[in-house]
Amino acid sequence: MATVRLTVAQALVRYLSNQFIVIDGERVPLFPGVFAIFGHGNVTCLSEALEAVKDVLPTWRGQNEQSMALAAIGFAKARRRRQIMVAATSIGPGALNMVTAAGVAHSNRLPVLLLSGDTFVNRRPDPVMQQVEHFGDPTINVNDAFKAVTRYWDRIVHPEQVLSSLPQAVAVLLDPADCGPAFIALPQDVQEIAWDYPAAFFKPTVHSIPRARPDRDRLAEAIRILRNAERPLIISGGGVRYSDAGKVLAHMAEKRGIPLAETIAGKGTVSHDHPAHVGPIGIVGSTSANALAAQADVVLAVGTRLMDFTTGSWSAFAPDAKFVSINAARWDATKHRALPVIGDALETLRELDHTLGTWQADPEWTGKGHTEFAKWNTMLDSFQKPTNDPVPTYAQVVGVVNAKAGERDLLITAAGGLPGEVMKNWRVKEPNTFDCEFGFSCMGYEIAAGWGAAMADPTRTPIVMIGDGTYMMMNSDIYSSVLAGHKMIIIVCDNGGYAVINRLQNGKGGASFNNLIKDCRVKEPFGVDFAKHAEAMGALTRHVDSLADLGQALDWAKTTDRTTVITIVTDAFTWTPGDAWWDVGVPEISERPEVLEARAAQTEGRKRQRIGI
């Protein structure tokens, strides 16, 4: 057997460099790059291996380990899980910085390969710098924290383990049902070891993403339920996009006359003006989709995990509504007494549509979807219409940005008030141009993901909308994107703090406290000049005071040659309606009458919840 002598780090890098996937008929690297910050535990061995292949597997230097991994996640979303970035860190604080990002990838079912340095297996120099010791279990260190937020976890303690570990990690990253982050810990003394690896292990390998077919009996039962439906509703989730099933679902919904609503991850499955589209559903959804959900007798949920923001904490549907859940993952399909149809969305929908024959939904129900959505669009027009108020609302700002965006420009946002506002007000012009990370609602995702998305597809410009609170939490990838030459347009909406959490606080009877800057323990509230801050990191910037100026600034931003940041002050108290009910904890006793009133309303709302698991 032919062998090649390599260190563990060199073997890992060579293996990753020889993995490929076919996309649209073209063979491309499965791992097109690495985000890395080198330090204690990865600078001497892993960096040496990566430097040797820098023209094949390029390495990009980040500014923060969390934001590097978030950029990798943004890349994966933009590539619809068909290519995977690597994020590499040192031991200790660097590794722990990535745990939050691993949680984002895990909750959103997104692939990213995380590599971390580790302590010495031989324990001779223990404790090493940045090592956290556990007195009763010396095998534990900070890398064990990743076990809670990864789909695959391993620690390489012998060179031969690379042969079994890496293929398993890749299999998880490409598995539609089990997709999520994979983590490999690399102890310092193991990374350096040379071993004679089989040359065949490094043979170029072309991967494909498997498409599981549904069980015939389950599919037959789903068809029976659907044919007997009087008021069917489709909920399209993120899995539809990752399966490339959007066109098939859109065609089926239109042909069958089934209203089609979208989850947060699924928004962008179809364009806003698609004939079957009735808007986003749930807590940050539309009045149109929520009105239909309340009356639907059969809900066909495709590629969604049915989180509380989609279901209104399971209060948005009729108590006797039947659910049919098409999902590659058994866990996600088997929820709330749904009929689980486990399989790839594209293949399952093709079989389902073919077998339905000439069946169509009741035209009166189809017409109701059109009527409700038309009313919703009229409401959106009124929300977005400019007024003489000195400070614009989120809806007005989103409307201007949406109007100026190109058909293929990618909108990115995440935590705070913007997810609800863009879910409602952003009218998708072309499928797969919307990315709202709300599975983990991670503050700091936005700008990092913008960098990753710009890297993933240089033919379109990511438009990142972000609040002032999230900007303050993580903004360093403005600098990263300028350094790397990956342009994005960032709109910073400054509403004086954590305004949407203040809204929730007030909405449940609480006093404004520690959210808006003016309500915090501060010596003197003042506004940050975000434009100057971004300019200091190399971006081109403008601050604007009006919607007209915002439109002109966006026209200018399209002509620039690097990341461009536009800042605007926005209203902290005006929000677009359409929300469903949401279950949150409200104090059972309080000295505030407003809290007791909110508690009573919350108790009443819980009576509408669908009982399930």
- What is the number of strand segments? 23
Structural class: alpha/beta
| CATH T-level topology of the largest domain | Rossmann fold
Radius of gyration, in Å, reads 25 Å
Q: So how many helices?
A: 24
CATH superfamily of the largest domain: Thiamin diphosphate (ThDP)-binding fold, Pyr/PP domains
Task: Summarize the biggest pleated sheet.
Answer: 6 strands, parallel
Spatial strand arrangement across the major sheet: 5-4-6-7-9-8
Please state the overall shape, judged from the principal axes of the Cα atoms: globular
CATH class of the largest domain: Alpha Beta
The unreliable regions are none
Range of helix content: 25-40%
- N- and C-termini, Cα separation: 53 Å
Average pLDDT, all residues: 96
CATH architecture annotation of the largest domain: 3-Layer(aba) Sandwich
Strand content: 15-25%
Number of domains: 3
GO molecular function: 3D-(3,5/4)-trihydroxycyclohexane-1,2-dione hydrolase activity
Protein name: 3D-(3,5/4)-trihydroxycyclohexane-1,2-dione acylhydrolase (Decyclizing)
Domain Thiamine pyrophosphate enzyme central: 219-352
Family: Belongs to the TPP enzyme family.
Overall description:
The protein has 613 residues and is of the alpha/beta class. It has three domains: 3-207, Rossmann fold, CATH 3.40.50; 216-375, 3-Layer(aba) Sandwich (Rossmann fold); 385-569, 3-Layer(aba) Sandwich (Rossmann fold), CATH 3.40.50.970. Helices cover 37% and strands 17% of the residues. It is built from 24 helices and 23 strands. It has a six-stranded parallel β-sheet, sandwiched between helices. Strands 14-13-12-15-16-17 form a six-stranded parallel β-sheet, sandwiched between helices. A six-stranded parallel β-sheet has the order 19-18-20-21-23-22, with helices on both faces. Strand 8, helix 6 and strand 9 form a beta-alpha-beta unit. The protein starts with a strand and ends in a 7-residue tail after the last helix. The mean pLDDT is 96. GO terms for molecular function: 3D-(3,5/4)-trihydroxycyclohexane-1,2-dione hydrolase activity. Residues 416-567 form the Thiamine pyrophosphate enzyme TPP-binding domain. Residues 219-352 form the Thiamine pyrophosphate enzyme central domain. Keywords: Hydrolase, Thiamine pyrophosphate. Pfam families: TPP_enzyme_C (PF02775), TPP_enzyme_M (PF00205), TPP_enzyme_N (PF02776).
